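Reference record:
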Amino acid sequence: MTISYPQAAVVLRIVWEDFGTRSPELSQVYTFEVLPKRVSVSLNNYKEADTFDVELDYRVFPLDPRFIRSCQITIHIENMERLVDERGKAVRIQPRAPSTGDKHNTVLMGFVDTHNIDLNDNTKTVLMKGRDFTSLYTDIPWTGKAVPLSQSVDKVIEGIIAQLKTTGDIKVENRTGLPTLPILSKIAPDLGELAGTRGAKRKESTWDVIQEIAAKAALIAYIELDKLVLTIPQVLTD
């Protein structure tokens, strides 16, 4: 029988509410690494954002979330394989970012949407709920500038991402196994011009447009941590 010893850690990057004071101290990003009481991560289908619930002990995180303007979160989970090391010292998870390569223990990167604080005689907890970086696209209506379709599918999507200030750091990764992807105008001449007026008429999100572009090339687009991945649909049988 195999026994696992999973542990979780969260890294919070917080900008505090300045209440209109424009304080330079409150406009900075403050980073906190916290061991949570409970973590739940739901990995949903590629068209939806992954979601999470994180419960923190107020004694470990003695900060009122109502004073948070925005909070980016990175959740790390790893099977530590044991409780103590050879010297009898407690084993603790060390957050390792995706930039460290295959040995990273990051399972989700996203933003906190809602938070709640519960202080009473029995419990002192802070509950945070949110979604991964897919929410950056699902929450933004498509109002972008016209995108030239005479480029490969990945380049068209990169052009859409570049228009959004909040998602400029997200890179597009080609995992199709193909050295180059097809030119969009050749495979989807009926797509028309991807101008902002189109979104106003159809009430589309930016994620809807990205999904349609990928589907025209028979591809799947999804967010994996801090990357937008393009891949070929997989099947289990012939």
About this structure: The two ends are 35 Å apart (CA to CA). The chain has a mean pLDDT of 86. The longest strand covers residues 106-119.
